[in-house]
């Protein structure tokens, strides 16, 4: 039987995985929001952020590799443009979750946050009536 989870190489090359990885960062989401208005020069994109031009360029490269933006040189200036096609693919995938009630989405959000942090999404007292799988139970 094959393992249903993709290996690191597959995940890194799956376009949808790249889109969601790019969207995971608040700086990159802010950049996309800025590009909704119009194309922008890289220096103009960098202006509102308190980080180096090199750091912004890394964010822009991730967005470009994910297909969320395109970059082109016009004269001596590099311009960025939003490419909404990659967002459409992510939106279509997310619409599959539209059938859930808000309470289920909250639970899903807690689960995802816990996965990223490596913590238990549903902390609470352990049920003392359940056997501990790490210890042998006495035989009756």
Automatic annotation (TrEMBL):
InterPro entries on file: ArsR-like_HTH, HTH_ArsR_DNA-bd_dom, WH-like_DNA-bd_sf, WH_DNA-bd_sf
Location of region: Disordered: 117-140
UniProt domain HTH arsR-type: residue ranges: 8-104
One GO MF term attached to the UniProt entry: DNA-binding transcription factor activity
Pfam families: HTH_5
Signal peptide range in chain numbering: none
PANTHER family: SLL0088 PROTEIN (PTHR38600:SF2), TRANSCRIPTIONAL REGULATORY PROTEIN (PTHR38600)
The protein, known as: ArsR family transcriptional regulator
Organism: Meridianimarinicoccus aquatilis
High-level lineage: Bacteria, Pseudomonadati, Pseudomonadota, Alphaproteobacteria, Rhodobacterales
